[in-house]
Amino acid sequence: MTKHDRWTDHPATADLKARFRPVFDRIAEGSVARERGRILPHEEIALLKQSGFTALRVPADLGGAGASLVQLFDLLIDLAEADTNLAQGLRSHLALVEDRLVAPRAEGEVWLRRFAAGQIAGNGWTEIGAVKIGDTLTKVTPDGAGFRVDGEKYYSTGTIFADWIDTYATRSDTGAPVIAIVKTDQSGVTIRDDWAGFGQKLTGTGTTLFDGARLDAEGLVPFENRFRYQTAFYQLVLNAVLTGAALAAVRDVGRQVAARKRAFSHGSGGLVRHDPQILQVLGKARAFAYAARAATLEAARAAERAYETSQGSDKAADDAANIEAELQSAAAQVAAVDLALRAVSDVFNALGASSSDQALALDRHWRNARTAASHNPVIYKERILGDHLVNGTEPVYVWQIGAVAM
């Protein structure tokens, strides 16, 4: 008997693609205007909720689409091609959906039904400043029939758009690490739009303050119960973002080349669209984007296997599946970072100086890819992959950042 005796066959990928293509096209239409005006995509998030995209992994009998993990990341890449901000802005929500999907039905169903109804989550995990590695200053304290939450979080991606905040904290009474799923619409929660990065400016990222925020008992989850392949999952979202940035850069520059009338005298002598060197530039960048997508989806298959083993009772199989999911996600990260950054940079060789015109906003593809590539430092993932290959060392599943003793 599995934890979820309710799965039906996944919907056809072609049907899902057809269902969401008009949604993604509509989102893509306004991406440049949003970027130039720094307009947060509230309307676009609402569209994704209304279309059912935010409930892709929720089982069909609970009101969702019942999509597989491979289908989820395939569609997430399509969304990232339309606007990378939206794909990353849903990162924490998609992870919380996955966590509640892995949980026993009695614990997860109430949340999955909320997600099917269009509610979404942001996050409150990272703390900055003097907090030491391994410490968490945000506390959950018993208070009457429920709890209160106090603390400050940064990099709260997606929280500006969210109904709930997936928050990492410790209990003040026991010191145990917990997940607190906190409702945003209350006086004890303050959300600031103060993300200062040069890319991914519209992900709804900033600071979240908890000052006596109310937490119901159903929203308190021991961290030890968190779904095991979460680190691989979080990285797969960033891999999708990187892939989407590469695909979008190839798409946009390709359109500019197709319409270009001016040519260089030392070029082929004809229309730029027929210049073999220009076509080679775009063809190579397209191949880079294709390879990044293929790597991401292959790693998603490994995460799918980790989901499947989480629903059974074979611990050895589950351990092996989680190791493989983390390693494949890391390998896909290394590939996607290199491939995407090369693609979003090299495509500028297909145009002249006009490609730097701010009206085109082509620079957003490089800025967005570079920003996403800076998360979860790739150099450490490269070492982890090598260490496993040579020494059989297991990857690090959960890690933190913080101050160290001088």
From TrEMBL:
GO cellular component: cytoplasm
SUPFAM superfamilies (alphabetical): Acyl-CoA dehydrogenase C-terminal domain-like, Acyl-CoA dehydrogenase NM domain-like
Domain of life the protein comes from: Bacteria
Record's protein name: Acyl-CoA dehydrogenase C-terminal domain-containing protein
InterPro entries registered for this protein in UniProt: Acyl-CoA_dehydrogenase, Acyl-CoA_DH_C, Acyl-CoA_Oxase/DH_mid-dom_sf, AcylCo_DH-like_C, AcylCoA_DH/ox_N_sf, AcylCoA_DH/oxidase_NM_dom_sf
GO molecular function, one term: oxidoreductase activity, acting on paired donors, with incorporation or reduction of molecular oxygen, reduced flavin or flavoprotein as one donor, and incorporation of one atom of oxygen
One GO-annotated biological process of the protein: fatty acid beta-oxidation using acyl-CoA dehydrogenase
Keywords from the named record: Oxidoreductase
Signal peptide from the UniProt entry: none
Alphabetical list of Pfam families matching this protein: Acyl-CoA_dh_2 (PF08028)
